[in-house]
Amino acid sequence: MESYEFHPRLVHRTARVRLRVTRHQADRCFGLLRSAGDLWAWLLDTNRERLVQGAAPIVGYQALCRELTARGPAGELSVVGARSVLARYSDSWFAAAKRRRKGEPAGFPRRKRLLVPVRFHHQTFQLDGRRVRLPVARGRPALWVRTARPIPYPADRIRAVTLVADCGQLWLAVTAAVPIHHHDLDPRQVAGVDLGIIHPYAVVAEHAALLVSGRAIRAESFLHLRDQQARQAKTARRAPKPGQHGSRRWRRYRARLRRVEARHRRRVHQAHHQAASQVVAFAVRQRIGVLVIGDPTGITTHDAGRVHNRRLRQWRRTHLVQALSDKAEQAGIDVRRVDERGTSSTCPACRRRVPKPSGRRFRCLACTFQGHRDLVGAANIAATLGGGTTSATLPTLVEHRRAGIVPARRDRRRHLHDQRRRRSCPASGHPDGHKGSSGCHSPHATTDPASDEDQATRRNTANVA
To answer: What does the pLDDT read at residue 30?
Structure first.
């Protein structure tokens, strides 16, 4: 009899790792990125000249490779790195053409870039622990770089690495083929997921619910906004006028500002990944096979006021959906998206629309139903596919989790804010010796999830509603 070998299903995931390089290594890496930028500009100029002459642009990957061969080398950039730029340009052009055929607004690549990421596929680079050898042009000395932390994937699973520059720092985007974990899931178990600002994720299953608090994310965003306003007020009169070149001191200040923005963005994204991991772990414990996510697309098309418009645009809802979808797919959970319009203002018991509640508490005037507003929205989202609760009450067991790290009391931004506003800090520091998320079941917690939804739970404790 023939024996068949089982190959697990794989998904591709990418993790960014910062590079720890010397000045000479940094100059060579930025030289590769600038060479890629010059090649990108050459592609744009070539197709622009062809359009002026009435000829069709060259957008196919094979045709671009032939043009590259006729052009010659591009600095220290290897053939593999140069072809990755050609593939990036070709993919961008065909993606824009596909969106235009569907009637969606899209623009072809026309903007020149100083630094363009360079991608190296499998078997073109070399790994030695934390050291990575990047391919360069023939005849040039080998380029070895060191990562600031261990690569989170096994060496045999890595399929490509991409050299990226973000706000003056060098990063290595590592792409690996990760196997899907098979759990004992029930495809008939459906749970609804409601996205929000107060709670990034609110999940309702048949017998349990989950609330992930975004207090740390909001504290980080609040302090970052106050720090940004203070910087702008202090440097407004020293800023160069339109059309003027700033001094070296001003350029250093702008570089520092970009690094601060990048650090804030990384902190928020890391908190989103923590929250998504908690949702997936909850779904695995409850044997949930399908997650129904309320899609908030189009929520920014309506004018909701200056303050609320800023909150919606800083929400990063797309990253929330993508983080949860990627982790759920890796766990073998099916993810579906539905329209969330009206789910937080519809009674799950009598299906009547009620005035939108101003707080976190939902009250139905017709059937006297009461519950947490975010859990009500998640229950209505789950009901679109036949899941969620079928009775007139929400699940009795509600788990509370927390994502992200609350800014510490010694954070410089907090002290500046306290001196300016003359009041106490907006959030507490780290929990007792714990920097991540915490919480589990506890029969001694409060029975009202709306009264203590933002209270930090200690280690091995949670709230039960």
So the answer is: 95
8 A C-beta contact, residue 167 and residue 258: yes
In this prediction the pTM is 0.78
Other C-beta atoms closer than 10 Å to the C-beta of 217 total 27
Considering the domain 186-237+264-421 in this protein, what is its CATH number?
Answer: 3.30.420.140
Closest CA to 141 of 26, 38, 21, 28: 28
The pLDDT-based confidence of 275 (bands split at 50, 70, 90) is very high
- Written as six digits, the tokens of 384 are 């679109």
Region(s) of the chain under CATH 3.30.420.140: 186-237+264-421
SS3 of residue 3 by DSSP: coil
Taken as a whole, the chain contains a residue count of: 465
CA–chain centroid gap for 431, Å, is 25
Residue 1 has which token pair? Answer: 């009899």
**Helix (H) or strand (E) segment spanning residue 22:** none
Q: Using an 8 Å Cβ cutoff, are 373 and 362 in contact? A: yes
Residue 402 pLDDT level (bands cut at 50, 70, 90): confident
Nearest to 282 by CA among 396, 406, 431, 439: 439
What are the structure tokens assigned to 449, written together?
Answer: 């999830």
Q: Rounded distance, CA 382 to CA 386, Å? A: 7
pLDDT single digits (tens) 16-48 = 999 999 999 999 999 999 999 999 999 999 999
